[in-house]
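Supplementary Text 2. Reproducibility record for the structural model of the 233-residue chain.

All settings were left at their defaults, and a single model was retained for analysis rather than an ensemble. We include the record here because the model underlies the residue-level annotations in Supplementary Table 4.
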Amino acid sequence: MKKNTMTLMAAGTCAMIAASASNAAVVAGWSFTGLTAYGASPLTATSSDANVTVGGLTRGSGMGTTGTAAGGAWGGSMAAARVDAAAAITASQFATFTVTAAAGYAVSFSQIDAYNVRRSGTGPANGQWQYSVGSSAFSNIGSALTFTSTSSGGTTMSAVDLSGFSALQSVAAGSAVTFRMVMYANSGTGTFYFQNGSGSGLSVSGTTAAIPAPGAVALIGLAGLVASRRRRN
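Retained model, structure tokens:
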């Protein structure tokens, strides 16, 4: 009977969370309109879900701000050539941002929305999205990316599906989710940027949901148990 009660309580909890989640929408997003000098670091999000705290878009220490920057774009200049992702990570040649659910909520991520990147001729030709939850090690999101265009129009990158990563679903308050783009295969001290392109900038979409209080969960389990007994009778 105890097992049945716990099962009913868990099912009730999931139902309440699902019922309180809205359709996928932008959880955190940045527009790069009007930026100069590579943009601030951290750069405050221009849009976010009311039930999360967003850490600004931040340059790793391997990304500088030397030289003349492109307008209306956020990024940095590379300190030296990095041949692969491992070398870039060691040199902190990456950009990061964090999303943390507010107290009493959980956040689930559906995708990194389509975005646009721009690089110089000697800038990073490849990139890799990664994520970390809390203090966990970073994990790759999909395969390595190729940034082909060095023109001002940049390269439009497809949306990145996050729905299949269980660690990125129903992440409760207290566990910050860190996303980072590692940039590498740069032949020198070139530049890399996120820019608006044909889209609205850089954003990640998903849902937030209220987590029911323990007392509410107990009531759900009790109601389910009573209903189960009545069916037996």
